Amino acid sequence: MKEIIIATKNKGKVNEFKEMLNGSGYQVTSLLDYPDSVDVEESGVTFVENAILKAEAISKHYRKITIADDSGLSIDYLNGAPGVFSARYAGEEKNDAANLSKVLTELKGVPEAKRSARFHCALAIASPEKETFTVEGICEGMITEKMEGENGFGYDPIFKPRGREVTMAQLPKEEKNTISHRADALKKLEKGIAQYF
């Protein structure tokens, strides 16, 4: 069975990838399985650049096929922020609660019509022998006025996907995994992944 390393230590992302790649015939591991993993500085200015940096560095280090994801939330009213700074929007330490609170504070009093936003996901798959392949996925929606839901992670409790009456954090994970930005990108990746091996 061929191993794919998911280049993240984020348990929420790891679980989503494992569920989405379940039955694919690949053994899915992550940096949680590699305690000696290298830290890769995400110095890119786009999601795609950061995904490539992570995928290529981890693939080179372990000599294995690696998928890296860089994703985040872009809010139109905030000129695309938090964008590539989504994970550390409220400060250097990754803190979901602080990030959520900051976004809600910045959008306080902003009418629903101006709360449009989207989750963006860039995936890069890298191998020591092949050229890196990238895809992007998007999930359109809007920012709610308060946090709702216990599922998911990150900005899920304040993001209502287009066509849904509840937040991403209120959706069953099976439904989220069919409409999310990561699912959109992964569907595109799956089309190219077979040729990649």
From TrEMBL:
Its EC number is 3.6.1.66. It catalyses: dITP + H2O = dIMP + diphosphate + H(+); ITP + H2O = IMP + diphosphate + H(+); XTP + H2O = XMP + diphosphate + H(+). Substrate binds at residues 8-13, 71, 153-156, 176, 181-182. The active site is at 70 (proton acceptor). Mg(2+) binds at residues 41, 70. One of its GO terms (molecular function) is ITP diphosphatase activity. Keywords: Hydrolase, Magnesium, Metal-binding, Nucleotide metabolism, Nucleotide-binding. Its cofactor is Mg(2+). Binds 1 Mg(2+) ion per subunit. SUPFAM superfamilies: ITPase-like (SSF52972). The keyword Repressor does not apply. The keyword Nucleotide-binding applies. It holds the Pfam family Ham1p_like. Belongs to the HAM1 NTPase family. Pyrophosphatase that catalyzes the hydrolysis of nucleoside triphosphates to their monophosphate derivatives, with a high preference for the non-canonical purine nucleotides XTP (xanthosine triphosphate), dITP (deoxyinosine triphosphate) and ITP. Seems to function as a house-cleaning enzyme that removes non-canonical purine nucleotides from the nucleotide pool, thus preventing their incorporation into DNA/RNA and avoiding chromosomal lesions. Homodimer. This is dITP/XTP pyrophosphatase. The lineage of its organism: Bacteria, Bacillati, Bacillota, Bacilli, Bacillales.
